[in-house]
Fold:
Amino acid sequence: MTSLDRGREPTPGPIRPFDFPKVDRREIDGLDLRVARISQLPMVAVNVFVRAGEWALEENVAGLAVLTGDALEGGTRRRSGTELAESLERLGARLHVSTGWEGTSVSLSCLADRLTDGLAILAETVLSPAFPDDEVRRAREQALAGIRQAAMDPASVASHEASRRIFAAGVPYARPVEGTLESVGSLHRRHLEGLAEALYGPRAGGLVVVGDVTYDEIEAMVLDHFGSWSGGPSTRREAVVEPRSRERGIFVVDRPGSVQSELRVGHVGIEKSHPDELPAVVLNTLLGGAFTSRLNLNLRERHGFTYGVRSRFSLRGEAGPFSVSTSVATDATGPAIREILTELEGIVSGGPTAAEVEAARDYIAGVFPLRLETAGQVAGRITELLVYDLEDDYHDRYRDRVRGVSVAAVAEAAQRHIRPEEAQIVVVGDAEAVVAELEALSVGPVEIVGQD
Amino acid sequence: MTRLSVPVARHRLHNGLRVVLSEDRSVPVVCTNLWYGVGSRNEPAGKTGFAHLFEHMMFQGSAHVPKNRHFELVERAGGTLNATTWFDRTNYFQTLPSHHLELALWLESDRMGWMLPAMDQEKLDNQRNVVKNEKRQRYDNQPYGDWDERLQALVFPAAHPYHHTVIGSMEDLDAATLDDVASFFRTYYVPNNAVLTLAGDFDSGRALDLVEAYFGEIPPGAPIPPVPWETEVEPVIGETVRDRVISDVPLPRVIMGLRIPPYSQAEFTVAEVTRAVLGSGRASRLYRRLVREEKVAKDVVSYAFPLMSGASMLLVWITGYADSRVDDLESALGGELEALADVEPDEVERAVALTETDLVRALERVGDRADLLSMFDLYFDDPGRLNREVERLRSVRVDDVRRFAVSHLGGDNRAVVSYVPEGGS
Structure:
């Protein structure tokens, strides 16, 4: 080979196309079934999504949807919790339940030749949970212990305090998704049974199967195991997302002796279905989403204040938070907040450069296939369509739409959706060491707040 | 039993660089994964944490790549990149759309061959601050954050390389100099101490030509010096040693470390399966007995570390409820470890089935595939071992686990770090 010119970056080879796996979608007796075949390895991933999320719940039972999901492993009308686990694990299968604001996903992952048995157990778990008393009590005690643990983890404390400061009281997003000691402590078996009875149905939910399988074999299995399934919610709860305040302020949660300050700087952002979704995603990538974003290059690579900093629009069913998150050395607390606000102000007033927008678009479009390697990842993406009620071709068009985001659209998104003057700033750290410095910043009133 | 057939081809360049190619054209994605045979075990006294700090310096540019440019180019190509430092090795990995393979090779080779001209004091000071903040964030500012430092010091004697942590100490990080960077680079970051794996979408012949072109002219280094510690240790700790910590933690927690055979020995497989019987899945011993039935623990975590130097560690921790006593947690956990001497065949069967599925699931990712191939090549000179992993796990018999429980899970092989909440019982 001829010798290389190391001073020049290599030119890329010919690009190879990538298509989102083809999804077969049909409705079977009211059940939305979506199947995609990928067959590099003999794996299969199944998600059952039911619209039983924390968004739909009143504050006094906050955490009920999460607890109900977690208690599914407690057993069915035919099998105890241990028998259920043994049946699954004999197949080498794993079952995972995750509950968020919108609903609960029950996921099965197993080798393809064990799917028939795995799917039967999955169906039994979701369709006929028994919620035995002692299993419900245990799930509740575990949840309460988890809440106590989070209350001493500085990152969780900061995120929870930020939610409470960003959203008006009464907006579900103001509270932790897993509920509080008070709300979870009040939950009993009858609450779980009631929630599952009312919301664990196929309506407004669905079933996603991805892996080394064909649609026809799946349809037969689904008819066998989910054929009788019915019910579920008919409407989605309406609630208006309002900010708690439009005045900037700094809220310090005192954690004496902390060697770092956990920081959150945020305000109400946008919902997943917002027309500015993709400009906002591009904007966030160059602002604080990528390693080479403005925030990370400033706080980490220039100043060494932190191990890392990220910003994020949490795109949910309704407008979630926009938030900058980092953890900085105690003596860098004031300077780091100053730099974060400067970056937010800079992107609003000056907008992004064309080179930044191009790089961010290329990054988002390029990493898209990298995150679709596994059956579980593809199933997760398809489940998103159910969760947020997106068009069937959302993922097929995603990269082209990202590439079509203009510099002007990103600049407008920054002006509309980044509001440093309304930011709620949360500091979890050693109050004695940081308060004077925070006062001196003169960016808003500084208040020391107690932890709930 | 799943028959694995991951393609594996090996090559070696004249400078000693080992190359593993695993071509799979199904998705237009490629991963470059580079393992250097250096980790915290190579750090002498007074230099703890240096291997990891050095890893950060590898991202600060090289002769033909200015600071931040590496990240910019890979992100812009739609790729991801990172690195990790561990006891026995340091790995660097980039996953990109496959038409950018050459970019990845250029960047990776430039820092293997031409890193030092780009080093300066400002970069070192900057990354020293970043790493100190990493230590603060992940360890010093966390409840239970010093557990591994305490546990390793009990499981491994003071002269053993695993006695100190990968993150190291603030004092040693403060003492690191540019001369240290240069000598570490010349000693360990040489082609004869590295394995480069490419996995994913490429043509093997063309890829090998590119690897030769980019890496072939990098001169080899001297033979790698031995680990500056005593790696030979007794197979078990010899007693139960304890460290009780009264601290600002939310819940009582007992963390147990057991000395087990190193990953280099066949018996490690038995330790691995024993770990899965104990702690993999919700029908596992510890979850079923301590979490579900007895309800003494809120959760259990277990792990068998694949370490190479003389011995390795099996880790189990259990977190109690607010009113639990750590003595009760320790005796409940100890009881379950000993009870494994009567393990049933069905339990071993389930543990192996879960481990098998977990392996196949990991292989779905080109990054995990490449990482395993690099590891097997560096540690065992045998990347093809990947395709025999299921057989290796399936070779463990119930009697092996019973014997292992007697030889390694008893009271003569326990290091126990207990956290008692301040003001608690």
